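Issue: ligand-bound run for glutathione - logging full I/O for the record.

Environment: standard queue, default settings, no custom constraints.

Inputs:
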Amino acid sequence: MADLILHHYQGSLFSEKIRAIFGFKGLTWHSVEIPPIMPRPLLMPLTGGYRRTPVLQVGADIFCDTHVITEFLEDLHPQPPLHPDTLGWAVRTLTAHADGHLFRVVVALCFQPKAAAATLGTLGEDMANRFAADRAELVKGAQGLATLPPDVAEVELADLLGRFEAQLAVTRWACGGMPSLADFALYHCLWLVQNNPVVHELLLPYARTREWMQRLAGFGHGVRKEMSAEDALAAAREAEPMALEIASGHLPEGVAQGDTVSVTPTDYGLIPVTGTLDYCTSHACAVLREDDEAGRVRVHFPRTGFRIDPA
Ligand SMILES: N[C@@H](CCC(=O)N[C@@H](CS)C(=O)NCC(=O)O)C(=O)O
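Outputs:
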């Protein structure tokens, strides 16, 4: 199996979810630091246009979105498990809620004007302006990131944390006695709040939650080795997509395996990726693409949150 290569940047909360999972599973990985805003000329040849962060590369296989990244890591390194026995459904449902709703709550809090200034201020005025323009482009035409008013977001965070604090009085982790993917999904959202000097005080009343965050941070990030974007591109070019045996099913109406299709997020970052449909199940799909710089690559996506259309 080729090495794990994560394309990410430090401040990206979804990247922190994957970095923490690398730590939990004790994995060694290559880190390619990407710019926090577009353009990303050395990443686009790999993804075919998908612009969200992070992206996992394994040779010529490219995994877009943390939901396919975590499923792939779990298949490859099942121990320790992200979905402890008997809790698979509960863990996945809670993870989807955290990555969807709680993500929107923390974005509303951390990017409200007074808090955004604190975060973006460290970037310098020019970069802060470019960041704002980039994120306006990211959510153009999008339904999924309609911002909550910060006061509403604050109430929702307190509601969630009050209940979570009560849960942590009786279990060590979100879903019982073992850590699970749900812990990492809740954690990366709260990590964004914790790192923001203006809103981090919202976590102060919740001592058990803060201890739980320390336990998660204690897993570390695994063994991280720096890699250049050029070397990552070369690794794709020199590899072939891995051998996979996945039976397709649940294809969209009018689409067959082998067709040229586009796969597009349905929430934000609505950029289609076009290729030949390689497999499609009810959970995930992938397209094969030929790229001048990356060679032949297979790009994987979750089904939820993405649409497949004939191209
Ligand atoms: N559903 C996606 C969400 C990823 C996401 O929204 N990532 C943020 C960064 S934390 C992003 O892409 N921001 C815009 C960018 O980096 O271009 C996932 O699970 O990977």
